[in-house]
Amino acid sequence: MAPIPRESRIPSSPVSDPAEALRGCFTSALTYPPLYVPPSKMKQPRPRLGQRLGQRQRHRPSPTITQELRPPPPRHHTQTCLRAHKMSTTLTSDALPPATALQKLSKLNVYDHTGAATTLPQLLTTGQPDYILTIFIRHFYCGNCQDYIRTLISAPLLSPSALAAHGKKLIIIGCGSPSQIAGYKADLGAPWDIYSDPSGAVYSALGMHKSFGLGAKKPEYITTPVLTGIWNGVVGGLKGGVFSGGNFARNGGEFLWVDQKLEWCHRMANTRDHLEVPQVVKLLNDWPNLG
Q1: pLDDT per position as a tens digit, 93-116
Q2: What's the CATH code of the domain at 173?
Q3: Global pTM?
Q4: Domain that residue 119 falls in
């Protein structure tokens, strides 16, 4: 076939660069007038945050000072009310044991550190003052009760000499073996007389509970972490005998005797429910005006 003359060929594109030609096609497509969209179908711009809040405020009544901005009561007034409420609540006596249960106490023995037997009524009558507070603790390995004894020791008003000056006395009773009393007293430095009710008969007669619960609130007298207290209890059990410390589930309480008559009591609801030490001081100092 004969070649086509140069003069009869299709003239070439004025754009010599192919990339430039492709860019022009896209530009034409973007600048082409769009199809008609009715205003009702057009997407409205979202109002700004400030505008939206302003619209809501127009439909809501503005707060008044008397409704929203009530001034808080003075700080010292709040603390006084809370302290009074706490004292009036926690120093309300639990139900006293019936007379038949109290009569059994004369037949139930407690023991001192030498193993000598006596009874709770004898402890209350043999040359004793008119006001005696008996604090029943848990087993001798209980870290919570050990913290409690240490906190009692730190209160000068509860020392034996300070109490004796006002005709009052404090006695501690545990539920373990009497052989544990001497070491327990020496380790803690407790200055009060300590006795033991290993059978738990006195605990039961006075209506004390059994529980392993910790309670919802940690009391102020607890200073040892829970795991540390458990570990110390395990170590004490291995050294002194697991069952020598007493019944692990048995809880204690505080019982106030006035002229050999039980007038007030508090039973522990869980393993760390002793009266706080300031409340013990108030109980001994202010009875019967506990407020």
Answers
A1: 999 999 999 999 999 999 999 999
A2: 3.40.30.10
A3: 0.67
A4: 88-286
